[in-house]
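Quick one:
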Amino acid sequence: MLIMGERMLILLSLIFSYLLTVDARTAQSDYTALLALKLGWENTPPDWVGSDPCGDDWEGIECSKSRITSISLASMDLSGQLSSDIRLLSELRVLDLSYNNKLTGSLPREIANLKKLTHLLLISCGFTGPLPDTIGNLERLVFLSLNSNSFSGRIPPAIGNLSNVYWLDLAENQLDGPIPISNGTTPGLDMMHHTKHFHFGKNKLSGNIPSQLFSSEMTLIHALFEGNQLTGRIPSTLGLVQSLEVVRFDDNFLSGPLPLNLNNLTNVQSLLLSNNRLSGPLPNLTGMKALNYLDMSNNSFDPSDFPPWLSTLESLTTLMMENTQLQGQIPASLFSLAQLQTVVLKNNQLNGTLDIGATISNKLELLDLQTNFVEEFDLDPQIDVSKVEIILVNNPVCQETGVARTYCSISKSNDSYTTPPNNCVHVACSSDQILSPNCKCAYPYTGTLTFRATSFSETGNETIFANLEFSLMQSFQLYDKPVDSVSLSNPRRGSVQYLDLTLKVFPSGQDHFNRTGISSIAFMLSNQTYKPPKMFGPYYFIGDTYEHFVDDSVLEGPVPSSKSSNVGIIAGAAGGGSALLVLLLLACVYVFRQKKNAKKVSGKNNPFGEQWDPDESNTSIPQLKGARRFTFEEMKNYTRDFSQANNIGSGGYGKVYRGTLPNGQLIAVKRAQKESIQGGMEFKTEIELLSRVHHKNLVSLMGFCFAEGEQMLVYEYVANGTLKDAVSGKSGIRLDWIRRLKIALGAARGLDYLHEHANPPIIHRDIKSTNILLDERLTAKVADFGLSKPYGEKGYITTQVKGTMGYLDPEYYMTQQLTEKSDVYSFGVLMLELITARKPIERGKYIVKVVKNAIDKTKDFCGLKEMLDPTIDLATPLHGFEKFVDLAIQSVEDSSSNRPSMNYVVKEIENMLHLAGANPNAESASTSSSYEVSKGSSLHPYEYFDTSVVLPRA
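Output:
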């Protein structure tokens, strides 16, 4: 009843405010354009009413001042055509109408008027007709994704004018004709030197590949032309683009020999040239150390012995050379390549004895030599090939009668994958809901993830797909999307070797998504904001229409058609204005009484009532297991009624306020927002846990407030902010090398106390730079125990995965088994952050991988000089630096068994300080003498507090 009353109040307020219309905030031209779009579409969002899209926050519309800057309506089931009046939106930056396959018709020429457009995303719509040449006028475009439509005709040469385009995707259309290049009077694709992605696969492009298309000035990483009708030779200029990582010219009509300089492409990971008419000798690809996936099948190369250079490709996972005129014997060294997974050499003239050697890759899953001339199979009995499918059907070795051999038949592949559930209690869902990995019934957002060039071939490897789920959740949480969990299923190889996966994205906090949630998730995928692990290569997403919206609008009853007039609504509302005022007042009284009753009920369910009564007569802080219970009135008084001036931070949990006790002591009050309120007993349990821990390197819990429907934690106030603020320079603190060692030591000692001396031992579970606070003497204090867990004799606990992206232990994520070594991993990331001042995940790169790849012990500063925080004075000796780096790398080992304990970490850092001539136990210097603080700096400890995320296990 309370909810109904609130909804009635909101409804009446909306209608009443409509009667008292204020001046619109949307420019008239923009409103006219949006109204034209609305009249041309069906199924527009139900809150597209009124005459002020910016002021009324129309769904999918973003504005700057009075101008519309973004239209994002992916997966909204829109139907109709794109009106030429789009030209009026002269300030538009983003237009994303992806995954609306009922949007048809042509792309209007007038789109050229959108001079400020940076993102044009029309993926998987129903657009037809030619691409207008006026598209070349959109000189600010960065993303142009028109794939998976039915565009026809030629690629407009004017696209070559788009010098700022990073991502160009015209794949999966009906585009035909030659690849356009410049000729002095007209532009062409060869002019796009800054473009990273050429995606033209699955069209009808024809003619030769112009040699002018490629040059050493280009920065391409993807050249995808698969599934077209291209003829002639692959030009040698391709070898000049040394930035290339993926090259696909498969499934065309290309002929002639391959360019001899192909092995110049030392960064290429996937090279697919299959199903053409290529001839001449096989190219020598020696030196292509990054090559993972090589497919040259079904070509007309000259007959040749098995090339020995194949055994030198150290990164090779997949070798596909079916029907390529290979002959002779396969060297055993091929099978010792450490990453090798799949070898398909069907329909060749390979002969002699198949010897896979004494050492084979433990990742090898398939060896397919059907229809060759292999006479014997020499297998060392010590070699375990039980996990390898070996196929020698139609070889002489299988022609002996009366002998049954497993390799002389073809077993049906059973590669499949579905995200397993977490360790949670399964529940029965209604027929139209789906059970999430976290065992919650919901209506997920679904679609298909398609990867155009994976660097692996296996589709049944759980670890590979678990990594993909992990990266998806990291990205969703990084961009604060309302996602509880994701599920992947049904991996399958589609046309031209694309890998398709069914993706389900489950909502957080409720069983439905609203339109804002869907459009923001869809935009992440259409805009390529999400970056998958590199092994998956380039991808695109096709979202399904979402049919279970929970609207943010409170309008009840049937929603009028987007094409209907609002005249009836206005007339009816105006005629009943007086009555509505009366109803509004009655509704206010009703809601007030309901809230008052609700407060009375909540007061009866206080688990602290009998055991945690404060001593009201004592003005000092009374202790009960180290924590005092404050009243709500006290919290209001100490924080000046939670004034904005005392607001020192905010995050997913709520807000933090500075407060002052009557005795002058500063406190930090962490006030939960409604969505973060725990059950009373859970809150009490957390307080009892925190009140047990006391150490100089842990932030002290001073008390709590559980009243008036509120939950607050009261901590000691720590003067000099977070470690993140210090290393980023935001706080104005300048940290020398010795100070960094001492901060690392303090944080390590705090963790060691939790692991070894707390009773019971505690795993923090959310170590990061925003949870390490620095006091007035820069002593490090571990803070925020909201995710902490006690553990017992087993040494681990099985629990839902929680933590913060970038710091989260991957083994804990994979197994759901939380140990103290999970804190060690997070601390290792913190150590790397301490010396580099970089975020754990920055521009899609993970600090652990970046540092590991950069380490070179033969160089100064372990080869990390260019990565170090520039505020570190390299002119002074960094005693113990190499040991510090070694310790950090040990701490972030993938396997927890290879990580040190926090006690070991403490001793190692103490030794580093001894080597540097510093006393690790000495009291730190005061603020004025120890470090510099810039004038005007904002020094408060919780500005970035509580950015923790909950991640589901893969």
